[in-house]
Amino acid sequence: xxxxxxxxxxxxxxxxxxxxxxxxxxxxxxxxxxxxxxxxxxxxxxxxxxxxxxxxxxxxxxxxxxxxxxxxxxxxxxxxxxxxxxxxxxxxxxxxxxxxxxxxxxxxxxxxxxxxxxxxxxxxxxxxxxxxxxxxxxxxxxxxxxxxxxxxxxxxxxxxxxxxxxxxxxxxxxxxxxxxxxxxxxxxxxxxxxxxxxxxxxxxxxxxxxxxxxxxxxxxxxxxxxxxxxxxxxxxxxxxxxxxxxxxxxxxxxxxxxxxxxxxxxxxxxxxxxxxxxxxxxxxxxxxxxxxxxxxxxxxxxxxxxxxxxxxxxxxxxxxxxxxxxxxxxxxxxxxxxxxxxxxxxxxxxxxxxxxxxxxxxxxxxxxxxxxxxxxxxxxxxxxxxxxxx
Length: 390
Hints:
By secondary structure, the chain is α/β, with parallel strands linked by helices. Helix content is about 35%, strand content about 25%.
């Protein structure tokens, strides 16, 4: 293979949200196109964080390949404005993709099967789905399962429209799910390009049998996937690049006694999916996520918060209380603690007050004392040094 000096290099950028305190941060994609008589053109992406201007239509003329954690991904040519016009506006904070199950999801995306992510509440399952949609440049469509929702409305029905002579007539309509499954058209250089969406189905384990049945054929292999219109019986196409991500707090064997309200899923539907277990996050990942969300905290302050979080989680687990101490909890504690710190309170004391977001769930004094007891050895012996490597 030829050396880098014999190749040509082009740099482009993908916006990834906030980095540092105030500046927008972007992935810089360094495309190295290597010409050789033995191999076709190869595309290598190198990622670094930088402050840049978002990608424009002129820069995004076609899909390109990039690598996240050793997994090759394809980024669509949609601009951020186009993505947000079709789907939800995703908060593009960084995601480190550093846990094993994150890699499992990224690898499974390219396999083309629906991905069923199960794990305790607050482990970042839905947030990972948002991050996947963001880095791939795809519209995000969210369906949050509630048992009282009519699944026919997701796919389509009938409505009334003007007949042109002052009256009305019945017309066949598509639902938001069938529209999303077709993909979304954009135009580049006079050509139309269809981009498949990421369809995030949250709380899939709460789906009724009738709701789950909507997805039976949609979860087939590429080329065989479709939705069935409930009125006409027509097969509604699903674009090959459409990605289904399903999240659930329980698996086929239950939720480990955590008390979630779930339904028994049809195994023949689940069998069409790739299963990924999202366990409670590692301390490293929790520190990374807290640091990214709250860059005004130094490393030692972040480490202290996470140590307290994990100690409280262990105490709640040992007491067999039906409460998840999760990344959501860390976010709530950090916000409350930062308000106290902004008023001049020492970080240790601010954290103690911040953890009232947990003890506030408990009526029994003994349980509240248990939370305090989980904090005592950590906060009492902590020595905060700005910038400490912990």
